[in-house]
Design goal:
Rossmann fold; eight-stranded mixed sheet; 343 residues; alpha/beta
């Protein structure tokens, strides 16, 4: 049976979190006047592209399988020693999207990259999907691995997962997390109101089809042209190809249910109560979570630092891994200094 327009719309919207809708507001992604931290240096249009090898995880990563209380499984990979850094990806992506960061920081930190439930080989349990469940999974991972003084780095939906966790598990946050790095993400309102209604209607139709036992076309609308819109200036073709492949490989049910959770995301109150040191990072050419969204998020977090990367899009870990790694490493050094001063 040929896919209907409705089917295609559901999967297309889920594949890159409403990228077409966000593009309509691209004019807002301009240089902010209120960044706390100075914008990063402009790398110029002629900077060399990353080699393809940068997007492949090192051979010595270790696989982890962590059971969740609802019968699901969290898959993660880890490498290195030292302060733990937990890496959470965005919707339709996987743990290996952080490969460039493993190459940058894997010799100085214990890096743990997670497949969020429904992504990669992590499996949902009886509680299904949604932001609350993702926040619970993060708490489970931190406790089961007995992590302390961790830095949680969340990209896009991974950042929203970290925000949900902060609101739902303040005790685990206080005991096990030293800092937050929120990368290309939003506090609320993933899509503008005039698109939000249509997106929710499309997701509802997708859920209805799935409940009735009908399939959704797993590959409809997921291609390199759409993936390219998630990047800023001159991305690596390998990186674009990987983002498209990850979207194509995601199970349609998980994609639709995950998008539904995103549409309900609102962490504003949780962020206002969060006192954990934090950094918010955004690129000036991010069409999904533009600079004003990052600025708003930073203002909600007491004392947060706001860093802007020029010419960068949404996929900062793939576009500008050296700069993002430097931001994380300098943040970790400040946390260490603060701990020494207070002791």
């Amino acid at each position: 049976m040929k896919p209907s327009r409705t089917q295609k719309a559901v999967v297309l919207g889920a594949s890159l979190v409403g990228i077409g809708a966000a593009a309509a507001g691209a004019y807002r992604a301009t240089h902010p006047a209120d960044a706390v931290g100075a914008p990063g240096e402009d790398p110029g249009r002629h900077r060399p592209r990353l080699p393809d090898a940068a997007f492949v995880l090192p051979d010595d990563v270790v696989d982890l399988r962590i059971p969740t209380p609802d019968g699901g499984t969290i898959h993660a990979v880890e490498r290195g020693h030292g302060r733990p850094i937990v890496l959470l990806h965005g919707i339709t992506l996987r743990h290996d999207v952080w490969a460039p960061i493993f190459h940058e920081l894997g010799d100085r930190f214990r890096l743990i990259s997670v497949d969020l439930r429904g992504h990669g080989t992590s499996a949902a349990g009886t509680d299904g999907y949604g932001m609350a469940r993702l926040g619970d999974d993060l708490a489970t991972l931190l406790v089961e691995l007995d992590l302390h003084d961790a830095i949680v780095v969340g990209h896009s939906m991974g950042g929203m997962t970290a925000m949900q966790f902060c609101g739902d598990h303040p005790d685990v946050l206080a005991a096990r997390v030293a800092g937050l790095v929120l990368v290309a993400t939003r506090a609320h309102q993933v899509m503008p109101p005039y698109v939000d209604r249509a997106a929710k209607a499309a997701v509802a139709q997708g859920r209805t089809r799935l409940a009735a036992g009908h399939d959704l076309p797993a590959r409809a609308g997921v291609n390199t042209r759409l993936a390219r819109l998630a990047f800023g200036d001159k991305p690596s073709p390998k990186a674009v190809e990987l983002v498209a492949e990850m979207g194509q490989s995601m199970v349609p049910e998980a994609m639709v249910q995950s998008l539904a959770g995103l549409l309900e995301h609102d962490a504003r109150e949780a962020l206002r109560r969060t006192r954990t040191p934090s950094v918010v990072v955004v690129g000036t050419r991010d069409l999904l979570t533009p600079v004003p969204a990052g600025s708003h998020l930073a203002h909600l977090l007491p004392g947060s630092e706001f860093v802007v990367l020029r010419r960068a899009g949404h996929q900062l870990m793939q576009e500008r891994p050296a700069e993002l790694a430097k931001i994380i490493e300098q943040f970790a050094a400040r946390l260490d200094l603060a701990a020494e001063t207070s002791s």
